[in-house]
Amino acid sequence: MPIAPKLVILDRDGVINQDSDKYIKSLDEWVPYPSAIDAIAKLSQAGWTVAVATNQSGIARGYFNETVVDAIHTRLNALVEDAGGKIEQIVYCPHEPADNCQCRKPKAGLLETIRDRLGLADLARSWMVGDSLRDLQAGEAIGCRSALVRTGKGGDTEAKGEGLQHARVFDDLSAFVGWLINDTQASDNPVVSNAADDPGPVKEEDASLGAAQTPPMSQPPA
User: Fold this and answer.
1) How many CB atoms lie within 10 A of CB 84?
2) Residues with catalytic annotation?
3) Peptide bond into 32 cis (omega under 30)
4) How far apart are CA 149 and CA 53, in angstroms?
5) What share of the chain is helix, strand, coil (3-state, %, to 5)?
6) 3-state secondary structure 92-140
7) pTM summary value
8) In what order do the strands lie in the sheet with 127-130?
9) Which pLDDT tens digit goes with each residue over 24-53?
10) CB count, 10 Å around CB of 218?
């Protein structure tokens, strides 16, 4: 089955699941936002390809190992599939900043890996969704449109107001997905302009952060 040219790349901690000041060191500590799982499924059902790109420097720091990360991603895939969706690729950087690798966001190495694995010529039609400036910078460096969510570190990122000139801002992943699907459907009508082609510094006010989720939390660099 060919990969759809429409692609959404998601950061993990703070976007799909709750963040932690002490890192996510085990499967038991990984707590997904229920609305985020449903949002990923809706993206798949609407014809979007979904991928995940996440910094996991806790591996290099010795807080956990790659077996833990693999177990978390197996659980994530299972939850999304149970909800009727699919994640095509999950890639992560195991390095810490001092390693000066090419894959740690804000560098675009992880996104380049996703592009190549999916056989895409470029990521010009894609979105990068994150809760930190480095997520947006990684996406924009490779041509993605960018969206910031207020979950995780997103509230603090928005408050700083740096580097958000080209990003749309949403309460959470569910709000972004609702907007994206509606905007894509509207763009099929030739008399309606497609705002996604020029996102600009737009804030989307949507109080869809459910009671099952926690407020934004700060976290040391992942």
Assistant:
1) 12
2) 11, 13
3) no
4) 15
5) 35, 15, 50
6) EECCCHHHCCCCCCCCCHHHHHHHHHCCCCCCCCCEEEECCHHHHHHHH
7) 0.85
8) 89-93, 49-55, 7-10, 127-130, 145-149, 167-170, 202-203
9) 999 999 999 999 999 999 999 999 999 999
10) 12
